[in-house]
Design goal:
mainly alpha
Length: about 50
């Protein structure tokens, strides 16, 4: 087991770094989607106001 400890440790650290990158990507996309949804909602509100 000790023979492979550094290899296992390196794989684990790489896995954690990849998971963190994945969650960071999800957070960025979530923020982008909220901005887009707000913009679309505002445009829709202007449309509804214009046709009423």
């Amino acid at each position: 087991m000790r023979t492979y400890a550094n290899l296992i440790r390196g794989d684990f650290e790489s896995y954690i770094a990849d998971v963190q990158d994945y969650f960071r990507c999800l957070d960025e996309e979530r923020a982008r989607a909220f901005v887009e949804a707000r913009e679309v909602s505002e445009e829709y509100g202007r449309f509804v106001s214009a046709v009423e």
